[in-house]
Amino acid sequence: MTILKIEQVSRTFPARHGNAPTRALEPTDLIIGNNDFVTILGPSGCGKSTLLRIVAGLDRPTSGRVTLDGRAVTGPGADRGMVFQSYTLFPWLTVRENIAFGLRERGVSEAERNEIADGFIRQVGLSGFENHWPKQLSGGMQQRTAIARALANDPKILLLDEPFGALDNQTRALMQEMLLSIWERDQKTVLFVTHDIEEAIFLGSRVIVMSARPGRIKAEINVDLPHPRSYKIKTTPEFVQLKERLVEEIRTEALKVAEHA
Amino acid sequence: MRPLDPVTSKQRVAYGLAFFVLFVALWSWATLGGHVSKTFLANPLTMVQEGFDLLTKQGFVYDIGMTIWRVVGGFALAAIIAVPLGVLMGAYKPIEAFLEPFVSFARYLPASAFIPLLILWAGIGELQKLLVIFIGSVFQVILMVAVTVGATRRDLVEAAYTLGAGDRGIIRRVLLPSSAPEIAEILRLVLGWAWTYVIVAELIGSSSGIGHMITDSQALLNTGQIIFGIIVIGLIGLLSDFLFKAFNAWLFPWRLA
Ligand SMILES: Nc1ncnc2c1ncn2[C@@H]1O[C@H](COP(=O)(O)OP(=O)(O)OP(=O)(O)O)[C@@H](O)[C@H]1O
Ligand SMILES: [Mg+2]
Question: In degrees rounded to 5, what are phi and psi of residue A30?
């Protein structure tokens, strides 16, 4: 059982060079249960990455606390796997070595490491690229490797920060299906950040809508679409209806941002 | 020619050689054509002759060997101390805050100005020559390595943390491999500077080495030998640079991929 609790977590970045302090995140509460797939949807700059980084332990909240299975999060750890918005594969390691990075850190033997890594390489469809360097991969392949790298560590919760943000629509759709099929098979607890409405609905069991800066949770919408989902679901009336609702929510937020700019 | 357009490797060699051909041609024109006095500048043919003479009759090979050993010895000594210190400074900010002001200051102390002092302390033996090169290189390497390690991509460090790496893991499996190619480049660069220190050290109070040969030749007004000595230094530098580059490329294939 995995339960992630975010309690009254806020983040203010201190003032610098005479600028006023930045309130990135208002006090936020969120509970993510076992095998939940929660997507966080919000306009650019609303504090999505900030929230995810706090959960990962890479940033400290100004107030509030995060607990995973009752234990307070005080720093980064292997129990919370992260896939970043930017490409963060280690350029000096091959695809296989990248995926095995966490296993090696734990002292898993080389034979076992390779076996586990190769399993994930197959899952994310990178067979034949085991010994390639990150430089030789396309953006989509790099993010697939990054997902496999996080999964290979078998974390309690997987944190994804707009992992497909830089990809073209077709690749993006394929990656969403790949991630969803992994989740449907292995049942993982996932927190997924995006600013793409379709992506949020297609992947999530629950969509959290965040308001423009300072970020806070504005709405929470359950997605009761059946699993397994295929891309065809995106044209069903239920999907379209959810989408319209979220478009409305997001639009008001985007307008706010535009007015302040 | 267009900005940043690559050249083929054949063209690269051709262009590189063309410069040397042009250079020797100008030099021949100036000396053989009688535009410059023989006392000041020997012509290329005399230079080659003098060089052959040096190598076969005057034991210049031994001098070259001595100089190489001094550079390599002093430089290796500096690298063994400077690289770990630089890595520690880059990784741990308190250590950097502690050492950086001193190292930055020491970096500007000219190694050649230490020669008289080092002769007093260590005599005119090998130790003194090694120390000149050591002092000339060690602070440069420390500082440059510290900057390189400190500039390691933060997102890679964070990724490693979320994969369960501890502080040791971060240093050994992220900071070191990510800076290694840069560190190798730094060593290649500073090795080049070490060559200038060694010659200066040999110009003063030495009984062997390329620098010593050059001072001797000056007394005899033998510009052919001086130029030959300088060219030998250049050639050795070129060769070591080439070897270093090839070694780095072999060591870090992921950079070229
Ligand atoms: N290290 C920092 N120092 C100061 N301000 C910061 C820092 N990191 C983020 N911010 C500010 O906090 C706010 C939220 O940033 P964050 O990166 O969380 O947004 P986001 O929702 O992830 O946006 P995007 O969708 O564009 O990635 C922004 O206004 C940003 O300027
Ligand atoms: Mg972000």
Answer: -160, 135
Q: What is the predicted ipTM?
A: 0.91
Q: What is the pTM of this model?
A: 0.87
CB-based contact A84 B158, cutoff 8 Å:
yes
Specify the residue for token string 């460090």.
B157
In a domain, A248, yes or no: yes
Distance between CA A245 and CA A221 in Å, rounded? 9
For residue A261, is pLDDT > 70? no
Task: Go through the domains of chain B in sequence order and give each one's CATH number.
Answer: 57-256 (1.10.3720.10)
Alpha helices, H only, A79-196: 95-99, 101-105, 110-123, 139-152, 169-186
Burial class, A169, CB count within 10 angstroms (exposed 0-12 / middle 13-18 / buried 19+): exposed
Contacts of B47 (CB under 8 A, 6+ apart): B224, B227, B228, B231
Handedness of CA B221, B222, B227, B229 (dihedral sign): negative
- What is the rounded average pLDDT for all residues in chain A? 90
State which residues form the domain around A103.
Answer: 33-61+72-260
Nearest residue CA, atom 1 of ligand 1?
A13
Is residue A23 domain-resident? no
CATH number at residue A209: 3.40.50.300
Question: What is the number of structural domains in chain A?
Answer: 1
CB A163 within 8 A of CB A146: yes
Residue-wise pLDDT tens digits, B131-190: 999 999 999 999 999 999 999 999 999 999 999 999 999 999 999 999 999 999 999 999
Rounded Cα gap, residues B102 and B97, in angstroms: 10
Above 90 in pLDDT, residue A230? no
C-alpha dihedral sign at A140, A90, A101, A35: negative
Chain A residue with Cα closest to B179:
A92
Ligand nearest to C-alpha A161: 2
Per-residue pLDDT band at A21 (split at 50, 70, 90)? confident
Helices in B9-125 by DSSP H: which ranges? 9-32, 44-57, 60-91, 93-107, 115-122
| Beta carbons of A91 and B169 less than 8 Å apart | no
Q: Which residues have their alpha-adjacent CB atom under 5 A from ion ligand 2?
A: A 49
Q: To the nearest whole angstrom, how far is the Cα of A89 from the nearest Cα of chain B?
A: 7
